[in-house]
Amino acid sequence: MRVLLTGGAGYIGSHTLLQLLQKENEALVFDNFSNSSPEALRRVKQLANRDFAICDGDIRDADSLDEAFRDFRPEAVIHFAGLKAVGESNEKPLEYYGQNVSGTIALLGAMQRHGCARIVFSSSATVYGESKYLPYDEDHPLQPTNPYGRTKYFIEEIIRDWVTSWPAASAVLLRYFNPVGAHPSGRIGEDPQAIPNNLVPYISQVAVGRLAQLSVYGDDYDTRDGTGERDYVHVDDLAAAHLAAVQFSARTRGCEAINIGTGRGATVLEMVRAFEKAADRPVPLRITARRDGDVARSLAATAKAKQLLNWEAQYDIDDMCQSTWHWQSSNPNGYTD
Ligand code: NAD
Ligand code: UD1
Prior knowledge:
The chain has helices spanning 11-22, 38-48, 62-72, 86-91, 93-113, 147-165, 199-207, 235-251, 268-279, 303-309, 317-330, and strands at residues 2-6, 26-31, 53-56, 76-79, 118-124, 170-176, 178-180, 214-217, 229-230, 232-234, 254-260, 266-267, 285-288. By secondary structure, it is α/β, with parallel strands linked by helices. It is globular and about 55 Å long.
């Protein structure tokens, strides 16, 4: 299959690209490298021992998209490209709507002009907002609480309307829970450009000595140990879900939203302990105030992914922490080493 990956040089994109290449697919990465490094693609090429096409372009630029679609003639698109920092989205909402929403509209237009009718989109569990019940299933009300989450919600609606208007089209909206971990080779992984906002990259930078200590945001939640509980999913499981979704999009028409999580939760302190075991060193921490906008618990209902994609997670939090540590300790400064 010929697959175009927008944002294919990023964290989740690079892991998905590797699995696509390993399964004999042809790939084109369309990325402006605003939050990624060409080094990630060089390493994917080495690991896969296969070449693929790269287009340095912005999804808001219709001419670059037209050129890529004309040259590569993709059968399907996996759309990862976009901005993803919740805090930044509160400060720069127009930037987020421009890149994420307008960028997606430009991409869908190019797909239609070039007869490419299948898309898998990187959505997020953040579209659900405060839980009415747990686990979140795909019919849970959607009430995102910040501009980033609203871009994902609006894009989902836009893709639904696009699919309705074009009988040949099919779309899968993958709502990721908390992606963590790295490829077992330790050659590719998550490489945050600034101080990480997310828990696991932060813990791993403390463990490697780049940051002094972890702040645990609150220990008075209604959870097993009072710290926030999340559904962490290994990035290689997530990559496999994309391959299953691309195949699913070939056998169906219409638009489906599907959760991608494990259905099992881990608290902040459970993640710290798993990481300490993986890295064989203590992770200094202090308990601080809750972070604004955080919820106590987030968990995925996983039946729909199993039923439609025949996908379920294989890895547990020990695998996630071991692979993160292997990547972080082999590349203390990420791709700049
Ligand atoms: P990432 O930042 O590592 O990857 C995104 C890629 O898109 C980067 O390579 C970046 O250079 C590229 N990009 C950004 N804007 C672009 C533009 N206008 N044109 C072309 N390329 C552009 O992020 P990631 O963690 O791999 O996330 C991928 C997708 O999954 C994002 O849409 C994100 O919102 C979504 N998502 C991520 C998480 C997570 O925790 N990582 C959770 C839920 C959803
Ligand atoms: C965050 C985003 C969410 C996004 C998700 C993707 C916010 C408010 N939400 O959610 O939109 O979809 O990442 O992975 O940013 N924690 C600490 N100390 C830290 C960092 C985090 O204690 O330094 C705690 C948090 O309070 C939370 C848990 O760790 O309980 C996980 O946090 P994080 O990795 O940021 O993920 P989410 O909060 O689920």
